[in-house]
Structures are given as structure tokens and as C-alpha cells.
């Protein structure tokens, strides 16, 4: 197909998109110069409703209620939003999810507490291409507690598979830490099967949901997951640095002890007495005063996701990524670009990665032309396609600029050698 045919195809897909009107709910700056925003898997666009919510909070709740706001609403907000997360995107019953810390802090709390639920076991399993923070936290805790790390070697263009995990699981395995959607390739793990594998070995499992929450259906309770963590600024559109969420299954809560003892996680926070006794339920995951401002916008995204429905978001995500891959094959592959994501949509999350040696150098030029993907070393360009805010015309425009920039390179620069 020529460019006009592709444009017609994008227009047809946009016209047939049942979620097309949701794009109008997102806020665009008055001086917006973005041609194609292809980084929704790093930072989601803001919702119009969030601008109103944040303004109202400052001018009414904060200015008007002052310290009374804690008793009236704010103290329980991490748990209320946690339950809403569970209901809307996590497949989790109430009382198991909360929000408030960074992803790194929650990973530390959950991993550190989880290994102590498996006394006598001395090993944490994680894959070699998991997100750096996950790997670093695991290595730090292993060093702290005198544990060992069992590495599962995974292909950066693929991800964790049941067959790769099986040989590593032993009677020494205390905890398995994996990402549901691989941050680099977008590979979607078979969470249900892998969770059963970990349990069959007597181990617990923690899933990192940073790249799946809000883009693919999740069923933590049905899968029997023990612990999970994820961020809220990607597909959940919570804003830069908005807090992460943690999940702790009901039947682990009574014995679970997280390592950061703070007043908000104590049984009676306002007693201010000696000694620390953890609160009942998932509140024991809390430590210090939660960042209320940072979690406000997540509520608007959860309302939007609940209205649209995760099945519809997943269907749109698949069609978006298929369209991007079709354009890659037609326009980028002849220029030496390689696909670094699964071709099977059932094994792919919400983003697509393509690789070329020139992409690092091209990124600034793409951004200058209003096309905004992100780069992942050594030579990957990630195309993060958020189903609620990304149009097919936007994908077409972005891939066209990437094609044109590559075509302008000298022959030596555009070679894959």
C-alpha cells in the first residue's frame, strides 16, 4: 500500500473504534506541538477531569478543610483508591490493595516481607531482563539477608516463559519476582501458569504490573497471586511520579511483616505509644504520611477505565499494536529496522519495540518534529500506544516521521551492520 492507502486504513480504523470519543477526555496544551505521542507506557496524558479535581482539592479541600481533611477523607484514601484499583484493573477483592509509596519502596517492602514468610528457604528467583529496579532491589535484599539470587536468562526480545522458569525452581526458592509485561519487548507473561509453577515448588510469587495495569486484563485473585506492585503514571494517567500500588493477598496479611515501620502502618496510628504493632489487613503496608496530592488524578483514570471496560481496552490495544507492526513491516523493515516484540498478540502487551543502531541518535530529531517515543538501550525505540488516548492516525503519523528520518541517513548510518 502507498501512503494514501495507509491513511485511508487509519481513518477507517479510527472511525470504527468504539473508544474514539475517549480521546476528547484528555487534556492537550494550548501550545501543543505533538504530532504523535507514542510514549503512553512511560507517562500517560492528563485527563481534563484531573485538572478540575486538582484545582478543587487545592482551593476547597485543602484550603477549606485544612487539617480536618485527614479525619474526613485523606487517612482512608490510600485504601479506598486501592480497592478501586482492585475492582477496576487488578481483579482483586477489597482489602488487598493500597497506594502511596514509590514502586521501588513497595518492591522492597513486599519482597522483604515475602521472603520471611518462607523461613528455611534461601533463594529469590528473577529474570535477567527484568526492569533494573526489580533486579537491584532483589540483589540488595539478598545481600542484606544472606540469600542467593537464581537468575532466569530471558531474551530481551521475548520474556519469561514457563519452560524457562521450571529448571530454576527448587526447594530453596522462597520467592519469584517477575514482570507481567516486559518493559523492553512488551512480552506478556502467562501469569496464571507461572503462578501455579511457583506454588507447586512451595514458593511465593510477586508480579510487577507496571506495564500491564490499565493495558491488559489482570486477575490477581483468580490466578492466586501472592503479591504485586505497579505504578500509576503509565496507563493509569496519574501524572509524573504519582504513587505506586501494592497488593497483598488476604491469607498472607496476618503473618506478613514489612520492614519499614512507620506510624501510619501501626495498629493505632494516633496512640503514639511505645513499640510497633502492625495494623490489621493491607493497611500494614503503609509507613509514613501518604502523598495525597500525588494519588488524586488516578481516580479519574479509574473512572474512565471502568466506563470503557478492560476487555474493550485490550481489544483496542491489540489492534493498535498490530497496526504499528504492519507499518513497521511496510516502512521500517526495508530500512533495516528489526521488530523486538512478540508477533503473537496474545503474548504482547500494550507497546511495541523496534530496533536500529541509529535510533539513539535519531531520538532528539524525532522529538523536535513532535513524534515522541522513548529509547531503551542498546538500540530500541518503544512505541507505547495507550488505548484510551492514542488514535490510529497518530500511529501512522509517527511511523511516517520515523521512516522519513531513517531514509535521510547516509547509507552507512542506516545499515544494521
UniProtKB/TrEMBL annotation:
EC assignment: 3.7.1.3
Name of the encoding gene: kynU
Source organism: Microlunatus ginsengisoli
Keyword Hydrolase annotated: yes
Record's protein name: Kynureninase
PANTHER family cross-referenced by the UniProt entry: KYNURENINASE (PTHR14084:SF0)
Family per record: Belongs to the kynureninase family.
Pathway involvement of the protein, from the record: Cofactor biosynthesis; NAD(+) biosynthesis; quinolinate from L-kynurenine: step 2/3; Amino-acid degradation; L-kynurenine degradation; L-alanine and anthranilate from L-kynurenine: step 1/1
Quaternary organization: Homodimer.
GO MF, one annotated term: transaminase activity
Phylogenetic classification of the source organism: Bacteria, Bacillati, Actinomycetota, Actinomycetes, Propionibacteriales
Pfam families on file: KYNU_C
Gene3D superfamilies (UniProt xref): Aspartate Aminotransferase, domain 1, Type I PLP-dependent aspartate aminotransferase-like (Major domain)
Domain of life: Bacteria
Binding residues annotated for pyridoxal 5'-phosphate, in chain numbering: 103-104, 131-134, 208, 211, 233, 263, 289
Location of N6-(pyridoxal phosphate)lysine modifications: 234
UniProt keyword list: Aminotransferase, Hydrolase, Pyridine nucleotide biosynthesis, Pyridoxal phosphate, Transferase
Function text: Catalyzes the cleavage of L-kynurenine (L-Kyn) and L-3-hydroxykynurenine (L-3OHKyn) into anthranilic acid (AA) and 3-hydroxyanthranilic acid (3-OHAA), respectively.
Residue ranges the record marks as coiled coil: none
Amino acid at each position: 500500500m502507498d501512503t494514501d492507502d495507509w491513511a485511508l486504513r487509519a481513518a477507517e480504523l479510527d472511525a470504527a473504534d468504539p473508544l474514539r470519543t475517549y480521546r476528547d477526555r484528555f487534556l492537550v496544551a494550548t501550545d501543543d506541538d505533538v504530532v504523535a505521542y507514542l510514549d503512553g507506557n512511560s507517562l500517560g496524558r492528563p485527563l481534563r477531569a484531573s485538572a478540575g479535581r486538582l484545582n478543587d482539592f487545592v482551593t476547597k479541600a485543602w484550603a477549606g478543610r485544612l487539617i480536618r481533611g485527614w479525619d474526613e477523607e485523606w487517612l482512608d484514601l490510600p485504601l479506598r483508591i486501592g480497592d478501586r484499583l482492585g475492582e477496576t484493573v487488578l481483579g482483586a477483592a477489597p482489602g488487598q490493595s493500597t497506594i502511596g509509596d514509590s514502586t521501588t519502596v513497595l518492591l522492597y517492602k513486599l519482597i522483604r516481607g515475602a521472603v520471611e514468610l518462607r523461613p528455611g528457604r534461601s533463594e529469590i528467583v528473577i529474570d535477567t531482563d527484568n526492569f533494573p529496579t526489580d533486579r537491584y532491589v532483589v540483589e540488595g535484599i539478598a545481600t542484606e539477608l544472606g540469600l542467593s539470587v537464581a537468575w532466569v536468562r530471558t531474551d530481551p526480545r521475548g520474556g519469561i516463559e514457563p519452560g524457562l522458569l521450571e529448571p530454576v525452581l527448587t526447594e530453596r526458592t522462597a520467592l519469584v519476582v517477575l514482570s507481567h509485561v516486559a518493559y523492553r519487548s512488551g512480552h506478556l507473561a502467562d501469569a496464571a501458569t507461572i503462578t501455579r509453577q511457583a506454588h507447586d515448588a512451595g514458593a511465593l510469587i510477586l508480579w510487577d504490573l507496571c506495564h500491564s495495569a490499565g493495558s491488559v486484563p489482570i486477575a490477581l485473585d483468580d490466578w492466586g497471586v501472592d503479591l504485586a506492585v505497579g505504578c500509576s503514571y503509565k496507563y493509569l494517567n496519574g501524572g509524573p511520579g504519582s504513587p505506586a500500588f501494592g497488593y497483598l493477598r488476604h491469607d498472607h496479611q496476618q503473618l506478613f511483616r514489612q520492614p519499614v515501620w512507620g506510624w501510619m502502618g501501626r495498629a493505632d496510628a494516633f496512640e503514639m505509644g511505645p513499640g510497633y504493632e502492625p495494623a490489621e489487613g493491607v493497611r500494614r503496608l503503609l509507613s509514613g504520611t501518604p502523598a495525597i496530592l500525588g494519588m488524586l488524578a488516578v481516580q479519574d483514570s479509574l473512572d474512565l477505565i471502568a466506563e470503557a471496560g478492560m476487555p474493550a481496552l485490550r481489544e483496542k490495544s491489540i489492534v493498535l499494536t498490530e497496526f504499528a507492526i504492519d507499518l513497521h513491516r511496510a516502512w521500517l523493515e526495508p530500512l533495516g529496522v528489526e521488530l523486538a516484540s512478540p508477533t503473537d498478540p496474545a503474548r504482547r502487551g500494550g507497546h511495541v519495540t523496534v530496533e536500529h543502531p541509529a535510533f539513539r541518535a535519531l531520538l532528539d530529531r524525532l522529538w523536535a518534529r513532535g513524534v515522541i517515543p522513548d529509547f531503551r538501550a542498546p538500540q530500541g525505540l518503544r512505541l507505547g500506544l495507550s488505548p484510551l488516548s492514542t488514535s490510529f492516525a497518530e500511529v501512522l503519523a509517527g511511523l511516517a516521521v520515523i521512516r522519513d528520518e531513517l531514509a535521510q541517513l547516509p547509507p552507512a548510518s542506516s545499515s544494521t551492520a
